[in-house]
């Protein structure tokens, strides 16, 4: 799949106010400063589509984008460290979880993991929560250009070993770099394969 158009639709804090759920939808989330906005811009080949910042925690809303006029990409607030009050973080957490539980056309959540960092409990807890709620998801390891291939392979292996402690099988995963665009086609082809199933189901 190639992306020919990517346009902002709306931002809000309530799943009930999201666009009509008549198109397949994919949400991107990760701990603060994981490179989410850069990854989204790279996938859509549109610099500045998602706002990037050196300050963690800048995304605070459910942000919808329409891709090729056919599917929604959603940029969600990060979890983990952010220089905000605890009450604000709790509000974001509730907003995110309600969105994921009740959004009927959510086909997959892409959980972003900084490939340079050892497995973090916040990531593992969130992934396990997705499993408990039967929410389909995939893993996207980011910033693969920041270290060697050997280190990347070790990082992925280390993370997978942690998942095997609570999972019988692993979810799909992708190794990416926003700078070199590695992994881009693999992620887009994966989305396209799910979109085809969405069409055939007549949803």
Topology (elements, then pairings):
Blueprint: E1 6-12, E2 25-30, H1 36-44, E3 62-67, E4 71-75, H2 86-102, E5 106-114, H3 121-132, E6 137-142, H4 149-163, E7 173-175, H5 184-201
Parallel strand pairs: 2-4, 2-5, 5-6, 6-7
Antiparallel strand pairs: 1-3, 3-4
Secondary structure tally, helices: 5
CATH-scheme architecture: 3-Layer(aba) Sandwich
N- to C-terminal distance: 20 Å
Q: Could you spell the SSE succession in H and E letters?
A: EEHEEHEHEHEH
Q: How many β-strand runs?
A: 7
Task: List low-pLDDT spans.
Answer: 53-58
Tell me about this structure.
By secondary structure, the protein is α/β, with parallel strands linked by helices. The protein has one domain (6-201): Rossmann fold (3-Layer(aba) Sandwich), CATH 3.40.50.300. The chain has helices spanning 36-44, 86-102, 121-132, 149-163, 184-201, and strands at 6-12, 25-30, 62-67, 71-75, 106-114, 137-142, 173-175. A seven-stranded mixed sheet has the order 1-3-4-2-5-6-7, with helices on both faces. Strand 5, helix 3 and strand 6 form a beta-alpha-beta unit. The longest helix is centred in the last third of the chain and has 18 residues, at 184-201. The protein is globular, with a radius of gyration of 16 Å. The protein starts with 5 loop residues before the first strand and ends with a helix. The model is unreliable at 53-58 (pLDDT under 50).
